Amino acid sequence: MIKIEKIEIIHIRLPIVHTFTTGFGTVKEKDSVLVKMYANGCIGYGEGSSLQDPLYIPEFTDESYLVLQKYLAPNAVGKEFANPETFAASYSHIRGHSFAKTALECAFWDIYAQTEGKSIKDLVGGTQIKIEVGESLGIKPTVEEVLEEVGVRLAEGYRRIKLKIKPGFDVEVVKAVREKFGDIKLMVDGNSSYTLAHVDTFKALDAYGLTMIEQPLGYDDIIDHAVLQKQITTPICLDESILSAEDARKAISIGACKIINIKPGRVGGLVEAKKIHDLCAENNIGVWCGGMLETGIGRYFNLSIASLPNFVYAADMSPSTIFYKEDIVERPFVVKDGFVIVPTDLQKDFGVSEEKITKYTVKREVFE
Ligand code: OSB
Ligand code: MG
User: Fold this and answer.
1) Does the Cβ of 293 fall within 6 Å of ligand 1?
2) Residues 164, 166, 274, 356: which is the catalytic one?
């Protein structure tokens, strides 16, 4: 049994090296909420990597913090749990707020792994020891700038390129990348900036052999995605619309997607992420691990879950050095020949820096 003695919730804000523009808007600095958990003589960390503003899905960082402060942390402290599944079940009556739940659940996983003397990869049944990595490229003022960065990332070894698109910045940029770089693994992400009125744009994109089109339509939609999927050959991948295994089951059953992007943060943690993974495997839907510009802490859990066998497409797993001047871990991972090694111990592999957490803290509260 794991007895939770103390929980700290920490809102951090990291400056980023360059802004990140998508179909939902521009990320100018990155917020996250961290949970530091004390139990059985161990310390565990988790990250809920929501955005500062409600632009991607409704939950934003002040809200994640508030839900942890008012419900999740006070309800967990002083209690005992056998494993992450029973722990997650203890707050499943709280609706929504998947990023807040992820921060809490991941801190518990970190402690659970330490007490079991096993890696999270082994505990979840992971089979891959390294994860294939792609770059997610923001929208730039010009196509030229996109071409330049694609060239840099391919030279660095990234194995696929994901282009962020929005109405007016789509077919032209895809065409230019194909013409310049040929038969690379290429995909696009619309971040819910299109509607069914844009069907001709997606039919035009069919000509470019994209691996997938990620979340073109409404952030909470599956119906229109099913309508669109019937009219185009490129597989649709859902991101924003899938917050749970139940959402995934419904989307698959109506043919709304052929691929799912699993982000632990968006679905409430590793327990739900594994359920979605297993459901997709049974239904021949390949998955891959997306990202929310997490710090090294969040990326540690993303890499752990991405070791499951049905994670068959390259992950959005650029190292924090691409986004941040400084990470809050001592030794951020590196991409080597287009892969990242799955870490097995947060402290030994990455090393959490309390000093850097303090430097970027907006607010913090202790529950004991
Ligand atoms: O839609 O996948 C997305 C970043 C913030 C919010 C949404 C998304 C993204 C990314 C970045 O594409 C992926 C990463 O973390 O490397
Ligand atoms: Mg996406």
Assistant:
1) yes
2) 164
